[in-house]
Amino acid sequence: MQINPGAAEFPHRQIAAQLKSQIRRGDWAPGERLPSIPAVAEMFGVAKQTVQRAVDQLRVEGILITKPGSGTYVRGTRRRLNRLSRGRYGGFRGYHTDLAARYRQQLVSVGRSPAPPEVADAFGVPDGTELLCRRHLVRTEESPVEVGASWFLPADTAGTTLERAEAFGRPLYQEAEEATGRRYATATDTITARQPSREESETLQIRPDTPVLHLLHVAYDPQRRPIEVAQATWPGPVTTLTEEYQIPAPAPTTDPDPDPDLVLG
Predict the structure, then answer these.
(1) High-pLDDT (> 70) share of the chain, %
(2) Which residue did the predictor score with more confidence, 2 or 83?
(3) Cβ atoms of 16 and 54 closer than 8 Å
(4) N or C: lower Cβ tally within 10 Å for the chain?
């Protein structure tokens, strides 16, 4: 292990690149602890502060995670983000078995809470309107990977099972359809990138300056009235968005000799 003092790249970035390469090569597996900061500094012949900056960079990128009093560990492999509307509902309106096998969802709380602006806008109600909120946390074996919440109108949920602080043995939307008597027909997903709140960074075990991906999922009934507004937030650097879809074939032309003046190049 060595750095090039004459290189244009900063020493801590050179170290970060080499550590990243070793992790990718499998020298350290997910969940394995790295050598201490002084040990790494000795390997590279640099000051401990330089190694700390390299570790901080890899923490922001989501590659490493530091556990106070324990050390710095490889966070794990990149997570494939496929919890969008199609993945959530599955091909047959049931559990997405691939997701269920890899992630464990924990119900955190159930109760009425003031609606944040994006949720209020989706429902068409004033900011701060009291809505039913079911909050959850999703984990892998390694670490938490998602904080989320599902919001409903109290008029739809009063006296139903959705108000109970308990998990259901089926997808939430199926419980909501039965409880509200309204069928999910369409859904929209809006994804944005932003900085995490303090609570999100603490829960997801990421640095406060690590960007997150945030999903706003709105599910509608056949009359285009919102039934559920769901939020999900993931650590950005360890989350990738992957979608697979069909590409339509070219539409057949009905005019065998189109006017060349009307053809756009």
Answers:
(1) 84
(2) 2
(3) yes
(4) C
For residue 215, the model assigns a pLDDT of: 93
Long-range CB contact pairs, 37-44, < 8 A, 24+ = 37/72, 40/15, 43/1, 44/1, 44/2, 44/3, 44/11, 44/15
pLDDT of residue 255: 60
Beta-strand relationship, 144-152 and 130-139: antiparallel
The torsion angles phi and psi of 250, rounded to 5 degrees, stand at -60, 140
How far is Cα 56 from Cα 238, in angstroms, rounded to an integer? 15
Residue 8 corresponds to which tokens in the numbers above?
Answer: 């244009």
Contact 151, 119 (CB under 8 A): yes
Token pair, residue 171, equals 């997808």
List the Cα angle 110/111/113 in 5-degree steps. Answer: 125
Residue type, 59: R
For 204, the enclosing helix (H) or strand (E) is helix 198-204
Rounded mean pLDDT of the chain?
Answer: 85
Q: What's the token pair of residue 31?
A: 């969940």
Residue of 227, 234, 237, 247 whose CA lies nearest to 82: 234
Three-state secondary structure call for residue 249:
coil
Distance in angstroms (rounded) separating the CA atoms of residues 240 and 18:
23
Give the tokens for residue 88: 């959530």
